[in-house]
Amino acid sequence: MTYKINYEDIMKIFKEGWVWIILFAVVVSAGILIFDKGDVSQKNDIAVRVNNEAVTESEFEKIKNQTEEAMKMEGVEIPEKEIKKETVEIVISQLLLSSFLNEKNLEITQEEINEFYKTIVAQDEQIDSKEDFYGSWESEGVDRKEVEEQVMLAIKYDKLFEKYSKEVEVTDEELREAYEEYKMWMGEVGGEEVEGEYGELTPFDELRGELKEFTLQEKVQERIDSEMEELKERSVIEGSQIN
Predict the structure, then answer these.
(1) What is the phi-psi region of residue 104: left when phi exceeds 0, alpha when psi lies from -120 to 50, beta otherwise?
(2) Cα–Cα distance measured from residue 71 to residue 77, given in angstroms and rounded to the nearest whole number
(3) Distances (CA, A) of 25 to 2, 22, 37, 155, 196
């Protein structure tokens, strides 16, 4: 599963910080991916299994319906066969992500969990407390335990991201390349600077810090993507919905 931030989001990154954008991307994705593993002991009830984690037929159908609804809200309507294919990919990605993070054996402290909820409350004007956060999901028919599982995945992802960020270096050449992309995104055409959607072009030296954070985020994400792809290649993926 990829959570790369494109240049349409760069101003948000500059203003809010990329770590929490990544974290909330996981949570938002989890919104339609939450499932109850339930009793998957019966092989014929398993829709998708990735290694030791599985989704039942009933939960697969639930996710498929939510996926279809999400697409309709975006004004996209596709054939039933394509919706099923998309759902399979979503479920595999979620199970791989869960397997990947659990494989890292990341220890999560109560302080980190508390900080997560504080950040949610601070950044969402419609949520005033941790209980409001759970209540918003419960109103959608999502059990509190399921939300807690997804929160733990989000925190683990963020912690792994932070760990890898300390191991990755960003060169000046990479910063220059990022700045060139930024200029293109802002609307510089044929070497002639023009005013973009977000105002005048900011000089490189003034953007160095933000560009470094952005480039660092991108390099760490590429590392995670690569590791997850390796995990997928050595994983056993099976189930009734797998063609």
Answers:
(1) alpha
(2) 7
(3) 10, 5, 22, 12, 26
CA–CA gap between residue 27 and residue 156 (Å, rounded): 12
pLDDT of residue 138: 81
Q: Is 6 left (phi over 0), alpha (psi -120 to 50) or beta?
A: beta
Domains of the chain (ranges; CATH) run 7-238 (1.10.4030.10)
Asked whether 194 and 138 are in contact (CB, 8 A), the reply is no
Is pLDDT above 90 for 227? yes
pTM to 2 decimals?
0.71
Q: Are strands 46-50 and 237-238 parallel, antiparallel or unpaired?
A: antiparallel
Whether 64 contacts 48, CB under 8 Å: no
Give 82-118 pLDDT, tens digit per residue. Answer: 889 988 988 898 888 888 988 899 999 999 988 888 8
Residue 189 DSSP code:
B
Contact 17, 9 (CB under 8 A): no
Range among 37-41, 136-140, 150-154 with highest mean pLDDT value: 150-154
Instruction: Please identify which residue in the block is written with the tokens 């939300």.
Output: 147
Are 89 and 243 a contacting pair, CB within 8 Å?
Answer: no
